[in-house]
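Checklist before submission:
- one chain only
- standard amino acids only
- sequence pasted in full

Submission:
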Amino acid sequence: MNLREARLLLEVANAVAQEDTLDGQLGRLIELVTQATDADRGTVFLHDFETQELYSRQSVGGLSRDIRLLNDRGIAGHVFQSGEGVLVADAYADPRFESSIDEQTGYRTATIACAPLRTINGEVIGVVQVLNHQGDGGFNQAHLALIEAMARQASVSVQRSLLLEDAERKRQREQEFLTMVSELSGELKLGSLLDKVIGTITRLLDAERSTLFLNDTKTDELYTEIGEGLGATKIRFPNHLGIAGTVFSTGETVNIPYAYADLRFNPSFDKQTGFFTRSILCTPLLNKSGTVIGATQVLNKRGGVFSDDDAARLKAFTAQMAVALENAKLFDDVQAMKAYAESMLASMASGVITFNDNDVAQTINRSGCRIFRARSRDVINLAAAELFGDSSTWLLPKLAEVRSSGESLTLLDVELDLAGKPTAANLTLMPLRSEGGTAMGSMLMIEDISDEKRMKGTMARYMDPLIAESLMREGANALGGQESEATVLFSDIRSFTTLTESLGAQGTVSLLNTYFTLMVECLQREGGMLDKFIGDAVMAVFGLPIPNADDADRAVRTGIAMLTELEGLNRQRQEGGLAPIRIGIGLHTDAVVSGNIGSPKRMNYTVIGDGVNLAARLESACKQYGARMLISEATRSRLRGTYRLREADRVVVKGKTEPVVIHEVLDFHSEASFPRAMEVLNHYRDGLELYRRRSWGAARSCFEQALALHPDDRLSSLYLQRCIAFDAAPPAADWDGVWVMESK
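Returned file contents:
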């Protein structure tokens, strides 16, 4: 080393040491390196350990934009990986050269000298690169050695500043983290809190989208109402499905760098929203007792994939937010229950009055005010004896009895003296108790049974309540024949004759009453109209007499609920040593004719038409396809919600000439009843496509793979048998994949 170089190295050490910031130190270093090597341009690249990239931190010579490249690309990447300096006499002749950088900057690179930037321990933390030597002959070994020596001189100061900068960055992150937690912890409104949490997580991890799923313990579903970039979209699905379901079930964090390469990923949400998922980070959400109550999912890390540090930060943040979320959810539940109770009381046709333990009125709803012909302020704080007049002589002892016994009491068709007027009413008296069981008072429900209500209540026992209400409101002529679109549901018990033989007459009636009670409750929850019972079959209609925009969805949800409720009943039967009940369900949406049909002496309000017949045929077809629930394409096309469906076949049913596309509904299945559903359905879909292209061998292989995963998949087994048969005796050349059903 000559005297000039020694002075230069000393100048580097002094100049870099005098700078207070990392940028200042790197700026002085590259400035002196560029001057010493007579280069046109120089750049210091540092390594980003989170993204595994080299990025331009300081430069001289006119570079006005930041450059980022993977740490194994270009000359800089080669030097970083090898730890050895490089001289390049002709950049464009060197295969390692990344010419796209020139295209981005508009600069023309000819010669390059590049050396590693190391810590005092020898770890490579970046590179120093100069371009286009201004003299003759380009850069030489002396230049490279000088760059390496100057980099070594600056390494101590640079490493110290890097450590300080990293410590400051961590301090700022921690401060930001604490600030965010502090701001969010005070929010009690669940919707606002979820919105803020999701926005914070998205910014915290530099992601494109975030979603926080909470578990609905009533339905065993994960749901979200807030999703960054999802707008008003609401997602709800069983809590064991997808990535979020896996995390919720196992309680383990999942980090997936390539979503579509992971079999657990469900791409259907991407298809619904038009979003493309690249990377996923999902961590469980635990409450203060350690129970998993949901999952937090972030998608698409900007500029790379999610790191272990990202996972740790997300886990720490969700741990801090879990208590706030649980408090907000509890507050939201309380508010919802309060609003629900107030709304329910306000909308009830029956009057509701609450009394304290001294029989003094505390609250009264709108219908109660109407029945008593008084304003609420005239009733509240009024003693029951004064409120009920002559009726109080027998009613007050009943209130006391209910309060002391803690049991409700129902009194039908009693006479009350209300506002000086005799009124016929049905009464329900209920005790009010605290969580600890302390008596707080009583509640009285009053149903004013005028002649109209008495008639309506009687009629509703023999026909659908909606029909009874329409008849009472507009008279018998209101239900004349009319054509309208509706979704018809048929369900039927399988092997019912065998069941009745073992049960006898009384056992059969008892079974049907229990079964029909469950099925009708499912139907009424979704606003469907029970048309009739046909032996052990149920016929129901959605869209009559009052249509809804989502009648097809209501019908599908009803069918799913019927199958789910039936599983619960079957568990009870099996515990008692009784055989399970199996049913088939068929749904079809079409124009039907509705109205009073019969003779002048006996009429039924019902629906008729081809749509009714096809729904019945689909219910019957469940036997052939081994399905529990089949719907027509007409019903599927009107669905607004997302369901787990698969195309079952294109068929011509008995009595029809035009083919109908039918689909199997699978939402009621669990992992136990339909294991590895996503893989099975993928093989089945591929097999069905090959089957319709007459590729019997390839289709057969797909169905065999599906059956290997789920041997009880009757639909895959059916198509496997068809493939074998068609392979032995191919169908006619004009075969279009339509199957003709010979039986009803």
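Reviewer check: Residues 141-185 form the longest helix (45 residues).
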